[in-house]
Amino acid sequence: MNKMIFFLMLFLLGIMPVSMLYADDFYYNSTTGGVTTEEVWSINFSGQGFSLYAGGPDKQVEMDGLSDSSGQGLKISYRVPEENNRSITAELDGTHLILTGIEKNGRRINRKIRLRSPFFSSFYVMPLHFINSDEEQMDFCILEPLHNSIMKIRAAKEQDETLIIENKPVETVKVRITLPNFLGAFWRSYVWYRKSDGIFVKTEETRGFPGTPRTYMIMKNL
User: Fold this and answer.
1) Residue 138, Cβ neighbours under 10 Å: how many?
2) Helix, strand, or coil here: 6?
3) Which of 90, 131, 189, 202 is deepest in the core (most CB within 10 A)?
4) What is the average pLDDT across 130-159?
5) Does residue 168 have a pLDDT over 90?
6) Rounded to whole angstroms, how far apart are CA atoms 102 and 202?
């Protein structure tokens, strides 16, 4: 799995509306190149904050964050225990993002990056004001944590679909995730979001550069 895209996907997870207050574990079958593994996503929402544990066969990442009612990210922190406890915190300061932390080699991070679009922390969970609105697309910025840089992402609705999970129908919206510039012609992923809360139910992802084998995820439990 390409590390940059793996962390990109994880950081795109913090845009749940703060009105959604619950804790739950979500289990997914993840298939890449014909090999299927199980990924567990534990999400705990409380007040304006969330905590997340996302585990797969090759990486464990711990995240904490704060977001406002519109999904705007206020503060995101993550730790990678398997990489000498590498950690980074991104905190919104007006129109800038303040990055602090420690890299895998022990070098300290202290940077200030100007934002030109709303800052979100994940596209695995979409705010309901987008999912259930007439708005067809949305541009936002995310942190690419491996290189401590900002990327602009575009989410564009494609169609409503009913998926069957545990023999039960789940109403979803299929959204294309891509880049808003010419690179969008070469890299894209698709995510199906549950209309009731915006959590991802199914994905078709490119977790790497163009040509990387596609990764397919499907939720196992409701």
Assistant:
1) 21
2) helix
3) 90
4) 85
5) yes
6) 33
- Amino acid sitting at position 24: D
**Would you say the pTM of this structure is higher than 0.70?**
yes
Extents of the domains making up the chain:
3-219
H helix or E strand, kind and range, residue 94: none
Question: Each residue of 91-116: b (16+ CB within 10 Å) or e?
Answer: ebeeeebebebeeeeeeeeeeebebe
Nearest CA to 150 out of 140, 138, 162 is that of: 140
Residues with Cβ within 8 Å of 107's Cβ and at least 6 positions away in sequence, in order, are none
What is the amino acid identity at position 210? P
* Amino acid present at 103: E
**Distance between CA 60 and CA 54 in Å, rounded?**
6
Least confident of 54-58, 75-79, 102-106: 54-58
